[in-house]
Amino acid sequence: MKKEKSDMKEIKLVLKEIGGKHGLEMNLDENGACTLDLADGRIMLVQERPGLDELDFVATLGPVPGEARAAVFTELLSANFYWNDTYGATISWNADLEEAVIMYPLRLDDATAESVETVFNRFLELQSAWAERFAGLLAEAQTDGGAEQFEDDEEESSGENDSDLIIKA
Questions:
Q1: Which CATH number covers residue 45?
Q2: pTM for the complete prediction?
Q3: Owning domain of residue 39
Q4: Where are the alpha helices (DSSP H) in the chain?
């Protein structure tokens, strides 16, 4: 069911009220978006997507230095698989910002003031947990131990093609 403009006005009022509870000014602009500066220094975007009848919550996790990308992206992709560790949110790479981001879409079809507030609060918790986990992934990937592990794995290889080993097994 397509939302009427009056329903979006109600959602905007709900967002403003929720923002007030968190000490945030959450007023969607004429483009249906607002940017929030979170306490942990990260940025969160709340954006209406009228064509999809969604409200998206997007937060930055941080940049990933080149030397850490393979290890960090592997972990992020694994967590994303069937939303295994993201609880319905999606982790992506924003090439414009050159940062990893976490995003959760809220369908507005049957959204209520309570469901919008619940999703917002859960997203803040999820973003905070992932910001902490992300920092740990970066630290681990940037240590010499992580690099040594990759070197050890390469040294243990028998030199045979991995697909040949699978076929022979």
A1: 3.30.1460.10
A2: 0.74
A3: 5-168
A4: 5-21, 69-80, 113-142, 144-156, 162-168
